[in-house]
Amino acid sequence: MEAKKRSRRSAKAAGRSLEVALVEALNLHNLQATRLGRQGAHDKGDVTALRVPDHVFEAKNCRTLALTTWWQEAVRERENAQASYGWIVHKRHGVADPSEQWATTTTGQLAKLLFEIATLRETVSRLQQATQENHPCDAPGNDLTHTPG
Question: How far is CA 125 from CA 24, 58, 106, 130, 135, in A?
Fold first, then answer.
């Protein structure tokens, strides 16, 4: 038995539904995400997040995967947005939880993102160490428990 094709209207509704779910999932982590809506030829993705403006999210709610085509679209949108990262977020059918949908990118982008995270963690660690070493309360002669008599 051949699968029933859905109408353009129901496909658009399914896409909107996933976009709303993606915004919800990103906002659980306070990323200040919003849907972008239709943008024509200079599309910059379906969802943006204010706290990570260098990421573009393309949402797909289709039963049949078309990762190559979707990736080409995500790359175009990433370039239009002048962003560093493009993501395909696609519906995991049978799973309603917005935080449990699939996200696809390339291993090159993944490595670049992990490098950025590692670099930021190292920087934070160095700053914490420098702050502890140079804290004015730790300076010789600064005994905050001593009250002049």
Answer: 31, 34, 29, 9, 15
The model carries a pTM of 0.77
pLDDT above 70 covers a percentage of the chain that reads 87
pLDDT in tens, 60-118: 999 899 999 999 999 999 999 999 999 999 999 999 999 999 999 999 999 999 999 99
Scan for tokens 């190559």, then name that residue: 68
Adjacent-strand bridge partners of 56 = 86
3-state secondary structure the chain: CCCCCCCHHHHHHHHHHHHHHHHHHHHCCCCCEEECCCCHHHCCCCEEECCCCCEEEEEECCCCCCHHHHHHHHHHHHHHHCCCEEEEEECCCCCCCHHHCEEECCHHHHHHHHHHHHHHHHHHHHHHHHHHHCCHHHCCCCCCCCCCC
Name the one residue in this structure whose structure tokens are 């005994």. Answer: 143
As a whole number, mean pLDDT of residues 27-34 equals 95
Judge whether 45 and 54 are in contact, CB under 8 Å: no
Instruction: For the chain, give every domain's residue range.
Output: 8-104, 106-135
